[in-house]
Amino acid sequence: MALPKKIHPVEETVRAAYEKGVLKPLRPLRLKERSRVLITLYPESRWRNEFERVLGRMKARTKATPQTTIEAEVTQARAEVKAKRRAARRSA
To answer: Where are the chain's structural domains?
Structure first.
């Protein structure tokens, strides 16, 4: 199924509750009616444990790097990604 040019496919994580046999998103989704999506179930507790494990490893590896340096590099990388996305939208 081809998407109209104005709608960009996005990958996003959405919290949902399972009620009476139906997954219900906890916030509105930016999807066209009757859109088909692929859902991967990942229990929140498992995600949290995995996140804490990765965060601990990151902290151990960056212990010698000043926090201001890390923040500056993350900010720069974020700006680069945003610029690439804007350029891709303009050329589409």
So the answer is: 16-91
